Structure formats: C-alpha cells, structure tokens
Amino acid sequence: MMDSTLPLLLKGYAWLPDRHRREGSWPVHTRLAGRRALALHGPDAVRWFYDEHNVVREGALPGPLLDTLFGRGAVHTLDGGAHRVRKSLFMAELKDAGGLRDLSDRLAREWDRTVAAWPGRDRVVLFDEVSEIITRAVCDWAGVALPAGPDGSRHLAADLVAMVDGFATAGPRHFRARRARARQEARIAELVTAERRRAGTGTETGGPSVKAATAFAAVAHHRDADGALLDPHTAAVEVLNVIRPTVAVSWYVAFAAHALHRWPEQRERLAAGDPARALAFAQEVRRFYPFAPFVAGLAADTAQWDGRPVPAGTMVVLDLYGHDHDPALFPDPYAFDPGRFLDRAPGRDELVPQGGGDPATGHRCPGEDVTLAVLATLTPRLARLAYDVPEQDLRIPLNRMPTRPRSGFVLTDVRTNARETDAAG
What we know:
Elements: H1 5-11, H2 15-23, E1 28-32, E2 35-40, H3 43-49, E3 55-56, H4 63-70, H5 80-94, H6 97-115, E4 124-125, H7 126-142, H8 152-165, H9 172-199, H10 215-220, H11 232-247, H12 249-262, H13 265-271, H14 275-288, E5 294-299, E6 304-305, E7 308-309, E8 315-319, H15 368-384, E9 386-388, E10 410-415
Parallel strand pairs: 2-8
Antiparallel strand pairs: 1-2, 3-5, 4-10, 5-8, 6-7, 9-10
Helix pairs in contact: 4-9, 6-7, 6-15, 7-8, 7-11, 7-12, 8-9, 8-11, 9-11, 12-14, 12-15, 13-15, 14-15
C-alpha cells in the first residue's frame, strides 16, 4: 500500500474526500508517515474515536506538529488519568460562563477601540487586524504579559498566527512556526518562573497551593496527576494552548467576512444584534468553511471497528471536513445557511469542526465555547461596520492547510456607523 503523505500535503482538505470517492465506502485504508492508517467518518466513528479503549494519543502526534501547533508535553499528548487532571485545568478556565463573558467584554472593547482608527486608512487587512485585536484581549483576560515595546502585541500575534499557519506544511511556513514557538515558549517560561517566585512556589514540587486569579496563574501553579508543578517549559506550552487557539479564531473571522460579502442578505440579519442569530451564524461559519481536515490517534490494544480488530499502533484518522459537509447530517451542505442552527443546537457528535466527544473527559477541544464566544462577539460588529471590498483574491484554496481567503480580506473606505452609511460589499 502506497504512502499517502505526499498526496495529503498536495491536496489538503480534498485528499480524504477524494480517497473516499475512489474507494466508495468507509473506512478508508491507507498509509501516512510510513504507518498503516484507517480513516473513519460519521457520528458512530466520532464516538468510537474518542473512546480511550479504542484510540490513544501518546505517541500519535508527530514531532513536527508538536514543534509548531501544540508544543512538546502538551495536554493533547496525554491519556487516561494524566489527561483528565491536566484537562481539568483548561475546563475550569475555558468553560466558566463568567469568564467567557469577561473575555467577550474585553474583545468588544478592543474591537471598538481599534476599529475607531480605521476610517481614513487606505486599506485594512482584516485577518491581520483581528489577530492583533484577539491577542491583546485574550492576553489581558488570561493575565499573560505582552512582549515589551510598542509593537509587542503585533509581534506576539504574528508568532501565534505562525504556529497555526505552519503546522501542515514542510516548507518555510513550518520553520517560521518552529521559530515562533521556541521564541514564545522561552519568553513565557520566564514569566512562569517569575510568577512562582512571587507566589512562593519556586520549585516544581514544593510551596503552597495558590488560588489563581487568571488563566496564566492557574497554569503556573497547576499540579499534575503526580502532585508536581509543571516544569516551566510545559507550563509555557499550556499557556500558549490557552491563547494560541483563541487567536486562531482570526481564521473564522476572515471566513465570516467572506460569508457576509458572498451572501450580503446575512449582514442585516446579523447586524440586528440577536444573540441566537449570532450564535447560529458562528456555528454555520465553523461548519461551512475549512479549518481542521481531520484528527488522528493510534489504535489501542483493545481496538475493534465494526467487529474487526484494528492492529495496535495503527494510525486512526477521523474525518472532520467531510463530516461537516455530509448531506446525511446537513442537507444541502454547500449552501451557507445559519438558519439550520437557529431552532436547535447541533448534537455533540454532529458538528465537529474542532473534534467531537465529551470535552470534560475526552480529547475534544475545550476552547470550542471560546471560539463561539469570540465569533458571536465580533461578527455582529463586523456586520454593522460599513466598508468597501476592493478587487482582491478572495479564493480559499483547499490545497493549503490551514486555508483562508488569499488576500486576508482587505477593507477600504471604512465607515464606523453602518446604520447611517450604506455598507458596500
């Protein structure tokens, strides 16, 4: 069986759907990175994949992915009790309703402050601006100090974007991502060490427990399943795993702008400020536009699929992009229709752009509610903003992972009151 790593890198999001169309059914059998691989699809596959009796994460994530997107020693690499104890740290910080409201309020203030300076500018690249807005807001919320200097937030935003942008390529983007991660891990590890000295917990095993007022402090003083503090490097990795995925919502905001441009009838509906409409729009952006193509793990010793044993160590790939465009789950899946989520919330294993399963006990992204909160906060403001959309390259190439509008979505002639001025585009 030929290895599919190169076709995956060349075709991107289209690789797995193309393989499925050629073979005509699931599962798809292939090889990736020299390892036997089994690709699965559908709600039953989601439930099976997130059962640790079937799929484990230890050793599943390749080094290049750890050195760019997640970081060495990250929660994503753990299983069992060790994973649950580390994951509880993120669940406590990212699932608290008051905390999400606080983050949303900070985002709204930062958006309003930043956008006030856009009128009069020749052009605004929305993706770049939003990445800085989210960086400033989430670092303020999480208690993470920005790098020193007037351009500190811009440099940090660029590094956080690079970590996401370079995870699925072997080219220059990958090496930019590695350098960005190394730079920010070293900086944040120093902040962790300073925080522990301040609180009197300067060693990995000693010192009192500390009541944390911020997500940064919670990570700095978190004790793992063995009762020990995280080493400063691992703590830095997990701090980045709070702020980096939040900044990654910049991709979805650019997609939201693309949707408002392509389907302008959505603008007035979203601008009205109905929270249910904003949430439905956010869900449809996450479903319709490509972000993660799939997730992967390794078959456990006890794994069986459809009554047949799966050899231990087989790479198990769970289709996400194809799942979210499955007509059996989402009728007319290539129509952009937020109305499909107005009357009901999607089932746990029905909409899986950031993975499936139970976020409290499994490997589902704990930041999913953060993604929705960021989108529901920023997209109505974007809909109320008046601007022109000049001629530009708005293609979203499926052979690039992660993808986004090529231009970053350029705005011109920004006017800040869409109720008084017609919004072009």
